[in-house]
Design goal:
GO molecular function: D-tyrosyl-tRNA(Tyr) deacylase activity; Gly-tRNA(Ala) deacylase activity; Ser(Gly)-tRNA(Ala) hydrolase activity; tRNA binding
Order of helices and strands: EEEHEEEHEE
EC number: 3.1.1.96
Family: Belongs to the DTD family.
CATH architecture: 3-Layer(bba) Sandwich
Keywords: Cytoplasm, Hydrolase, RNA-binding, tRNA-binding
Number of strands: 8
Distance between the termini: 6 Å
Subcellular location: Cytoplasm
Number of domains: 1
CATH superfamily: D-tyrosyl-tRNA(Tyr) deacylase
Length: about 140
């Protein structure tokens, strides 16, 4: 399971010209599911995302996590993160989770984070989405479990 996380001042996702999810300070999470992913990997990644210390403390050091700064999550499904780009000029998605598996683990990730008291907004699974953000830093990390 892969999460590309970006520290943002604000982010939103639109579908068909309508904003369906938006946050201010927090993390934009682009979430990719791979074939071998399961509930245990999802929980490990969700915990890591929420606990990752990438927000600045009073000394300007990345020392605080999402909860400590009162931030929110905007979680967007992104199957292309599971692409194999090692050969040729066209990505292979053979390692990506099935749509059914990905949808289930995506929703489980969202529910798990919300159950931990983190405000969560989402995109729409498998929709054509337009994602806008103001990256803070920029600070971007690729987390994988």
């Amino acid at each position: 399971m892969i999460a590309l996380i970006q520290r943002v001042k604000q982010a939103k996702v639109d579908v068909d010209g309508q904003t369906i999810g938006a946050i201010d300070k927090g993390l934009l999470v682009l979430l990719g599911v791979e074939r071998e992913d399961d509930q245990a990997k999802m929980e490990k990644l969700a915990t890591k995302v929420m606990s990752y210390r990438i927000f600045s403390d009073e000394d300007g050091k990345m020392n605080l996590n999402l909860k400590q700064v009162g931030g929110s999550l905007l979680v967007v499904s992104q199957f292309t993160l599971a692409a194999d780009t090692g050969r040729g000029l066209r990505p292979s998605f053979s390692g990506a989770g099935t749509p059914e598996q990905a949808k289930q683990l995506y929703q489980a990730f969202v529910d798990y984070c919300a159950a931990q008291g983190v405000p969560v907004q989402t995109g729409e699974f498998a929709a054509d989405m337009q994602v806008s953000l103001v990256n803070d830093g920029p600070v971007t990390f690729n987390l994988q479990v």
